[in-house]
Structure prediction request, 517 residues.
Amino acid sequence: MRITLLGHAGLYVETDHGSILCDPWFHPAFFAAWIPFPDPSALDLDRYASPDYLYVSHSHDDHLDRRFLAERVRKDAVVILPDFPTDDHRSTLAELGFHEFLPTRNHEVVEVDGLRLLTNALVAPTDGAIGDSGLAIADGTATIFDQNDSKPIDFDALAEFGPYDAHFVQFSGAIWFPMVYRLPADEKRALGIRKRANQLARAGRMVKEIDATTFFPFAGPPCFLDEALFHLNDLGTDEANIFLDQHVALEHMRSQGVDNGALTIPGTVVELRAGDCTVTHPVPDAEVLRPFVDKERYLRDYQARVAPVIDAEKAAWPDHEVDVVRELHDWWEPLVAISDQICAGVNGRALLQMEDEAVVVDFLDRRVARWEGETCRYRFFVPRALVEECIRRRDVDWVNSLFLSCRFEAERDGPYNEFVYNFFRSLSQERAEYTERFYAATAAPMETWEAGGYRIQRRCPHLKADLTRFGTVDDGILTCAMHGWRFDLATGRCLTSDDRQIFCEPIEPTGEEPDAS
Ligand code: FES
Prediction:
């Protein structure tokens, strides 16, 4: 098996039984905020445009590059479809011209023409674009796991598919938190430090669980080359920056005694055969490190090259061409009306404050209207042009456009509330109904486990990670390593978000004397 890294989460996998193009991304994403890093423009893209199979792990724009897929990729490639709860992913790819689909079911092995495939699909409203996935591939010579941005919560099927020769794992941030929040600098810094540490801890756990011969940090970070966002790049000097790069991640892993990781850049080729792994870079070794160790200069050169592209995209944004209040009222008020779980979870109001207009999404009275000064617990300060563009494109997932752009600021009273963002991810009837069903089903009966003197629910109240693997208890505080959420076991209270509670109870001593032998 031969794998060419295409930058970010892009892989081109060649086997004796066909080729698979995974998550190619080459054009700026999220309102031209995210740019692939390192620069992939030296790749000869025609070499990767005629795969037998296409796999797009989820619908975020840094994985689903509409323009590249529409203009360059052969349309009779068979699309490997993860088992997602809505039809959006398939219909987006169909609109781009793809017509051959290979639907998969979560954790069920598919055999096609000598290839064995297994997808793991994450389906919580918070996973990717309501759906995130990874793909395991075996061709008889090697087995790999393209984990991508997905955060598997069950490992049994993945373990059975292995053992793995290579594991491609995300480690960097893909979020706007805490950077966009209006917080005191020291508080924001402390949050950034903790977020970065959580990301690295989670990647470390994933590497341990998959236990591949070699792991490759990938799927991030992007770089930010619009001058307004340049400060978001991690230049290697800020331990509070969540966009740490591959080189930093590998150094960190090595410091933890994990030294089976390898660095890649766009064009790196990984050959796997008979247990051997050979990594070949497209440039001399001394140049491989340049994007990481001479980063600011590298990014400034890159910025000069892409500035015209960014400027052209910004010039195309609308300017007072959309009646924002009326459009959002007509679009969102019917969605709020059917969103019982979301309304109960938010239990407040959200404000969209633009330069010259403001809209309130009132989850208490189920209204979407011009803001008249009502108290709003969640406040977003957003450029009007981006709101207009989201409306014009009828974006059903504003996380996958506005929020990931980091081109906004936010304030909130109280802790994080995922229901707020899940509303903005669920902006169609199909998505809103799915989100409702998902939350309605979370009251299912639970398994428990024991740790630190407590009987505790086994699945994390956040996104159901298996706490027997990802939970640690220290001094009465349970921490889930998947996203770093913390719970006070004396009360069950979540210390990270105020909308969740964990089931836990002290284990009563039985009164029996221990065995003497
Ligand atoms: S699953 Fe997210 S913190 Fe546990």
About this structure: The chain has a mean pLDDT of 94. Residues 185-210 form the longest helix (26 residues).
